[in-house]
Amino acid sequence: MDTSLQQTYFPDLPCFGCGPANALGLQLQSFVDGDRVTASFTPRPEHDNGLGFLNGGIIATVLDCHSAAAVTHAAHERGWPADPGVPLPYVTAGLDVRYRRPTPLRATLTLVAEVREASRDEITAHVRIEHDGKVRAEADALWKRWRAR
């Protein structure tokens, strides 16, 4: 697949982390890689935590938004697209982030997401940031079906 999952499923989304329509955002581009979804992310200098490492809020955003690509892809693969009137089939209901070690600010990071469980009502995914062969941060993400109200 040459087109990112973000461009495939939500090209007009203005989300700061994963929205292709947000020129000032992180512009994550995730791709299917077997049973997982991967991406590369290079932080910008303004993502500094004040100590020369990647800011924890940016880390959480990257984990959340990369899992969005994996979850949305899993939903479409299972025939569960977004309901009429909502832009995405699922919305973040929980994100349990664990910071394992400092995440470099001046390096290209690898993102990996794997869907763990999926039902029409909710999908769970495990997502992580890796660099230099080590997990820097990881999260379990819970996504609930987004229903129009």
From TrEMBL:
UniProt catalytic activity: octanoyl-CoA + H2O = octanoate + CoA + H(+); decanoyl-CoA + H2O = decanoate + CoA + H(+); (9Z)-octadecenoyl-CoA + H2O = (9Z)-octadecenoate + CoA + H(+); dodecanoyl-CoA + H2O = dodecanoate + CoA + H(+)
Keywords carried by this UniProt record: Apoptosis, Cell membrane, Cell projection, Cytoplasm, Fatty acid metabolism, Hydrolase, Lipid metabolism, Membrane, Transit peptide
Keyword Lipid metabolism: yes
Its EC number(s): 3.1.2.2
Subcellular localization, as worded in the UniProt entry: Cell projection, Ruffle membrane; Cytoplasm; Membrane
A Gene Ontology molecular function term of the record: hydrolase activity
Name this protein carries in UniProt: Acyl-coenzyme A thioesterase THEM4
Organism listed in the record: Nocardioides zeae
Organism classification: Bacteria, Bacillati, Actinomycetota, Actinomycetes, Propionibacteriales
